[in-house]
Amino acid sequence: MHYETPTDLETALELYAVKGSRIVAGGTDLYPSAKQGHSPRKLIDLTNISALSGINFSGDHYRIGAATTWSEIIKAELPASFDALKQAAKEVGSIQIQNAGTIGGNICNASPAADGVPPLLALDAKVELASAANGTRILALSEFILNVRKTSLAEDEIVSAVLIPKPGALEKSAFEKLGSRRYLVISITMTAANITCDESGVITHAKIAVGACSPVAQRLTKLETDIIGQKPENIEITEQHLSVLSPIDDVRGSGEYRIDVVAEQCKRAVLRAVMS
Amino acid sequence: MTKFTLNGAAVSSDPVPGERLSEMLRERVGARDVKIGCNAGDCGACSVLVDGDVVCACLTPAHQVNGKSVETVGGLYENEPIVDKLADNFLNHGAAQCGICTPGMIVSAVAMLRENSSPTEDEVKDALGGVLCRCTGYRKIIDAVLSVAPSISEGSGHIGSSIRRLDGVEKVSGRDLYGDDIAPSGTMEIFVIRSPFPRAGFELGDLDGFIERNSDVSAIITADDIEGENAFGVIPQFQDQPVFAVHEARFRGEAVAALVATPEFIRDFDQDKFPITWQEKDAAQDITKAQSDDADKLHEKHERNLMCEGFVQRGDAPSAIEASEFVVEGHFNSGFVEHAYIEPEAGYAEVIDGKVIIHACTQAPVMDQEALEIILGRDKSQIRIIPSSVGGGFGSKLDISVQPILALAAIKTAQPVRLTYTRTESMQSTTKRHPSDIHLKMGANSDGKVTGFDFLGGFDTGAYASWGPTVANRVPVHASGPYLIENYRAKSKGIYTNNPPSGAFRGFGVPQSAIAQESLFDELANKVGMDALEFRILNALEAGQPTVCGQVFDQGVGIKKCLQALKPHWDIERKACDEFNAENDGLKRGVGVASGWYGCGNTSLPNPSTIKSGIRADGKIVLHQGAMDIGQGANTVISQIFATALGASISDIELIGPDTDVTPDAGKTSASRQTFVSGNAARLSGQSLRANILQRFNVGENCEILFDGSVIHVRENGKEHSLELSSLTADEEGYVLRAEETYDPPTVPLDENGQGSPYAQFGYAAQMAVMEVDTELGTVKPIKFIAAHDVGKAINPVLVEGQVHGGIAQGLGMALMEEYIPGRTENLHDYLIPTIGDMPPVETLIIEDPDAHGPYGAKGLGEHVLVPTAPAILNAINAATGVRITKVPATPSRVKMAIKAQKND
Fold first, then answer.
1. CA-to-CA distance for B125 and B109, rounded, in angstroms?
2. Per-window interface: B 614-673 vs A, CB < 8 A
3. Who is most buried in A150, A203, B122, B788, counting CB within 10 A?
4. Of the candidates B93, B92, B77, which has an alpha carbon nearest to the alpha carbon of residue B34?
């Protein structure tokens, strides 16, 4: 096995085009899922590529390098619409994990319970993918994650960045996580809400996403439409609003339970977003 | 080459691609102060600083630190000024118990304190939230990081003083050596082949061919290599577990073979390449199925998979209940609970001059030696157990795990060998708390007195007996709780299943039965119309009254004092909850109370401890302290008792720890017996040494002895006598004076109705829990605990508090989140134990109702601390919401569904 530490993306892409390679950045998913005796032929470490780290604003969108850690996101100065993402970042494992784990790794791992995904969906995030052969393409995050542990990544593609369109000036957000303990816990359910209200406190725009209740985190588009024109404290959640969810029974909770609490979580997330 | 600075010094190393930083640090550059608990980022024990940021070394590619600065606890202890105070605080607060998580805690705290020198409690929790501790209950750690003023004592260290633990500096500096820290790097390693199925037949293939093809493999060990008996078990009549299964594996994770190879081979070994074929078979994974007509027998002699039963009867329970004005009954369940000590089982073995020497973590070195005597078929004198430090045990490290495999491998290869279980291996293959299925019915009259109590408990003992018979015996003796119950019937059954063996876990089944009993006590008090605490005080056992075994203690029954000590808190907290609830809709708070009692030492069986001490010609006082310190503090407490009895200062005493060649057997660290039983042996040893000295001067018993280097002075009536120790003849161990004393608690066997005197002493406890339930989400947030414990005499009050906090944390885990499901929760992110964010403040009320048998009145405490916790929590949830949770853990899902069902009723 080889361990490669490219310092620019082009070299990384060339190295990755060779079969049997794997990407490593924070290592927080790579090591726990490693199976003894099944090592990749090559590990390509992306953490020395400066273009893949950090957050910058280009006028119409924010660009978060794929190898940006959760701690860097927490410390970054960002508008209120990113509060949910920052709150989610603080819920990713522990400080040890937040210091190492990256936003790109979180979405590539495609866990139904990835803390980063609902806030990114609520930010209308897009994913920038790069390959040596085909250059760069951009996909909506909702098109990027296909299923449990499945993404649209082609064999030779690397996620280079997450792109967030410039949010509205009044957009605020909040993240609600439910787990069986504090810290180091896989979510039972989670909800991110990005909400815009007018001066009278009426919702004018809403983006709400729920994780751990379906193979891929989902936006609740019907709910988003229905609550426009309402006051955040008055919103009602119906069965139909949650019909895109298909939670399973597992050790963390029953499907019935998840649906019950997600309704409550949506209310709390919306309310907390506007109160922030 | 990977070049970096390690604690300020330039180092270079050549890790293999993909190697974990933890591996490189421990095995290539000698940083064994970095401890590994899970290799998955779940426990944080391996936390190190990379360029000042805290990360899990187990998740960091070694190559990534090229050009960077790495700091570990050992270096921080030497170089970082913050740690001067922090380490002191840890020692003063007893914030390190077993110490295996301490490096992770200190490293994480340093990362925060460098940025923020005066953190809030919440900031401390955020900073330390990534490090799991299974011993302390975290509160002492929070106090240490916040620099709360400690209540530590200096001075002679005699009983009653809160001296620092004697082995503490090793723990806060990362110097302590645990099971995986003994073997030199490069030692041959062992890989254990385990059953992937709960039940499966298997055939081993061409093992010789496999060895021939793989030159790095030096041997494969199977049942054929066992020269003695392929059987072990902690109870002589129930030695039913093989070291390696033969033909059929009876639980998922059971060992069937092991290969011994170079570390490089093991690192890259794909176990699918091992020559074995499996045939999965129909498995009985619960006690209902195991007892059904068509279930196969796991063990030939046990019809319907019944391992054994326990029974205690007094008076006529069914008739008394029948005649009662008020009757309640309930059905209660609990699942497997994993010990989840942060140190997985690990050890190192070598054969020197024909003697097998094993360094491994254990709670019972002499039992390990006795088990190996049978397995290896060689005399005890050819087996030496030198325990490593133990990174938590809680009962599971009473059973052998790595020891026989290490011994067989070392013998077969004639080379030193090393074995460390992975977290998953540890969880799959070692013992668990017994799942329980309990039916309980009880009655009371309008005067509030409990009239009758009828208990039937089924316990899943897994594939092998382990401590199952002890659970079956202990439960009927304890299921009444510490109350006067004249009409009593309790029957327990241990059932074999195709699950991991259930064994000893802090309380031997009593925490499970306490859930049923204390939950129904609340229900019964409610029916009678009495306050739950008053009801308990009214029914509490008193000195002079018979226990359910007919044993009458004429002293030392402290339960009423414990309950009464809670009374003012009960009133204040209940009022506070009422006020809180009046102001809140979705959040509801409640207060719950529960009692517990626990007999210290073996149930009606001998369990002697022997403590040897001696004085050398240079005046050094040596204590052979054989009671395993697994974090609870035996090294310190036993020494304090000994120092008190001898009349010496604790600082004059040198400890020699457990080692089957040089230290007598102080029995197992189990059954809350070390302070009581080994403490008594230490007291006798100290007294005997003192008597020996006084006799030489022919002076009275109360004379003061001054140990002054190689001279001993004795003062009586203003006269001073001196003894030059070098004038005495030293024995073969170098002692000029010595004493060796044994204590075995007096008990009387139980008859067929369980009547007798099973224990020489009980310890008593009552705990109060304040819980907040989010009625919409079903989440339960602990607000505070108040715990009253009758310890007879607190030998070291800070260590007493440490036990209470840690026991409560484990009880909290059992009540709210912990459930081991074979094949499903075999790691520390699916199996959840409480983190620093889950433990609320604990107020410990130490009650001292001295016991006539205890050393200076002291009683055991280790298990009492978690017996009342889970039922107190469940009663608090009931007080908050009105729902009665009868199946633990009370996960958010279960609590919410119960609240929903109540609303729909």
1. 10
2. none
3. B788
4. B77
> Cα-flanking dihedrals φ and ψ of residue B866, to 5°?
-110, -5
pLDDT(A276) > 90: no
| B778 inside 8 A of chain A by CB | yes
CA nearest to A4 within chain B: B17
The alpha carbon of residue B270 is apart from the nearest alpha carbon of chain A, in Å, by 4
With cut-offs at 50, 70 and 90, classify the pLDDT of residue A275. Answer: very high
> Which residues of chain A make contact with B892, given a CB cutoff of 8 A?
178, 180, 188, 253, 257, 261
Q: How far is A60 from chain B (nearest CA, A)?
A: 33
Taken as a whole, chain A contains a residue count of: 276
Cβ-Cβ pairs closer than 8 A, A with B, add up to: 161
Question: B64 at the A interface (CB within 8 A)?
Answer: yes
**Chain B residues with beta carbon closer than 8 angstroms to that of A40:** 18
Structural domains in chain B plus CATH codes: 1-152 (3.10.20.30), 188-283+342-392+396-429 (3.30.365.10), 436-602+752-904 (3.30.365.10), 609-743 (3.30.365.10)
CA angle A22, A24, A29 (to 5 degrees): 100
Local confidence band at B152 (pLDDT 50, 70, 90 cut-offs): confident
Q: Does B196 touch chain A (CB under 8 A)?
A: no
Over the stretch B767-814, which tens digit does the pLDDT of each residue have?
999 999 999 999 999 999 999 999 999 999 999 999 999 999 999 999
Q: Which of A205-219, B139-153, B249-263 has the lowest mean pLDDT?
A: B139-153
Indicate the SS3 state at residue B490: strand
Query: What burial letters (b/e) apply to B428-466, b meaning 16+ CB within 10 Å?
Result: bbbbbbbbbbbebbbbbeeebbbbbbbbbbbbbbbbbbb
ipTM here: 0.98
pLDDT tens profile B6-20: 999 999 999 999 999
CB-based contact B270 A36, cutoff 8 Å = yes
- Calpha distance B562→B885 (Å, rounded): 26
Distance (Å, whole) CA B341 – CA B339: 6
Mean pLDDT of B243-268: 98
3-state secondary structure of B816: helix
Chain A residues close to B268, C-beta within 8 Å: 36-37, 39
pLDDT at B719 over 90: no
Q: pLDDT over 90 for what percent of chain B?
A: 97
pLDDT confidence bin for A100, thresholds 50/70/90: very high
* Whether B217 contacts chain A with CB within 8 A: no
Q: Which residue of B has its CA nearest to A267?
A: B776
Which residue type does A100 have?
A
Q: CA B440, CA B96: separation in Å to the nearest integer?
A: 40
Say if pTM beats, i.e. exceeds, 0.90.
yes
Residue of chain A with shortest Cα separation from B827:
A32
| pLDDT tens string B811-870 | 999 999 999 999 999 999 999 999 999 999 999 999 999 999 999 999 999 999 999 999
pLDDT at A157: 97
Q: Which of A45, A180, A265 sits opposite B891 (nearest CB)?
A: A180
Who among A3, A95, A253 is closest to B892 (CB)?
A253
The answer to whether the Cβ–Cβ distance between A5 and B63 falls below 8 Å is yes
DSSP string, B678-698: IHHHHHHHHHHHHHHHHHHHT
The CA–CA distances, whole Å, from B629 to A96, B362, B387, B626 equal 30, 10, 10, 9
Domains of chain A: 172-275 (3.30.390.50)
Q: Is B897 on the interface with A (CB under 8 A)?
A: yes
